From TrEMBL:
GO terms for cellular component: cytoplasm. Residues 91-222 form the Disease resistance R13L4/SHOC-2-like LRR domain. Coiled coil: none annotated. Residues 219-254 are annotated as: Disordered. InterPro entries: Leu-rich_rpt, Leu-rich_rpt_typical-subtyp, LRR_dom_sf, LRR_domain-containing, LRR_R13L4/SHOC2-like. Pfam families: LRR_1 (PF00560), LRR_14 (PF23598). PROSITE patterns: LRR. This is LRC18 protein. Residues 227-244 have a biased composition (Polar residues). It comes from Myiagra hebetior. Signal peptide: none annotated. Keywords: Leucine-rich repeat, Repeat.
Length: 254
């Protein structure tokens, strides 16, 4: 229809919202509206504003209205994987929050009111468009985990680095000078994958000829080697799936 702007998303009714309330393992009541195709914050959930946990992740939300301040009991708020480009000032009124996940949005800046959340222990701001973060983020002295990966940050304030309880600070894939990696040297040496030790007398003529050819190759490699090394070194060797585990941790901080 004429005048339609963008996706309308799924309409959430109060009945749908009530059926989405669950009791978490910690005994808190969680309103789980994740992966519901929501494009607009459903005002009907104000009737359930006494929940302790709210999950609106993996939707199409572009804005969180100031009425979020009605959820004064919130301790856990998950807004990851939406289309948010800003946060309301009212976010600072949720003083009981200990967990806030804003990962994978389009945030370009943070409101100063975010620093009023003095009970926060986990804050995930990864996968956004942040070029700076306020130095006042250093007032969140209860922070244990802070995710800033995959942004456009060129500096991390000292006040943030020196947070007294901070155990995990993830700043990977930001253009930070102190984390610039040196280019790895190109290894031009051919590696031998297998080595067989047998006595010469036990070899047939064709095998002996093959071994002599391999021995000549080894002599050539010795001439190309710049200097002797007592022990082989494999600095780039990693355990299987270690990279996959690291990436999985970054996407959702628990």
């Amino acid at each position: 229809p004429k005048g339609k702007k963008g996706p309308q998303g799924k309409r959430i009714t109060l009945k749908v919202a009530k059926n989405a309330v669950r009791v978490a393992f910690n005994g808190r009541r969680r309103l789980d509206l994740s992966k519901m195709g929501i494009a607009t914050f459903p005002k009907c959930i104000l009737e359930l504003a006494d929940v302790e946990e709210l999950d609106l992740s993996r939707n199409m939300l572009k804005k969180i209205p100031n009425i979020i301040e009605k959820f004064q009991n919130l301790m856990w708020l998950d807004l990851h994987s939406n289309q948010l480009d800003e946060l309301p000032a009212a976010i600072g009124t949720l003083r009981n929050l200990t967990y806030l996940n804003l990962c994978n949005n389009k945030l370009k800046s943070l409101p100063e009111e975010l620093t009023l959340l003095r009970s926060l222990r986990t804050l995930n701001l990864g996968l956004n468009c942040l070029e700076t973060i306020p130095t006042t983020l250093g007032t969140l002295r209860e922070l244990i985990e802070l995710g800033l990966f995959d942004n456009a940050l060129t500096i991390i304030p000292k006040s943030v680095k020196k947070l007294p309880k901070l155990e995990k600070l993830n700043v990977k894939r930001n253009p930070l000078p102190e984390f610039a990696e040196e280019e790895e040297p190109i290894d031009t040496v051919k590696r031998i994958e297998s080595l067989y030790l047998v006595e010469k007398k036990d070899l047939c003529s064709s095998c002996l000829q093959t071994c002599e050819g391999e021995r000549e190759e080894l002599h050539k490699l010795e001439d190309m080697t710049p200097g002797p090394s007592n022990k082989p070194s494999f600095p780039s060797l990693v355990t299987p799936n270690s990279t996959a585990r690291d990436n999985e941790e970054e996407w959702r901080m628990k």
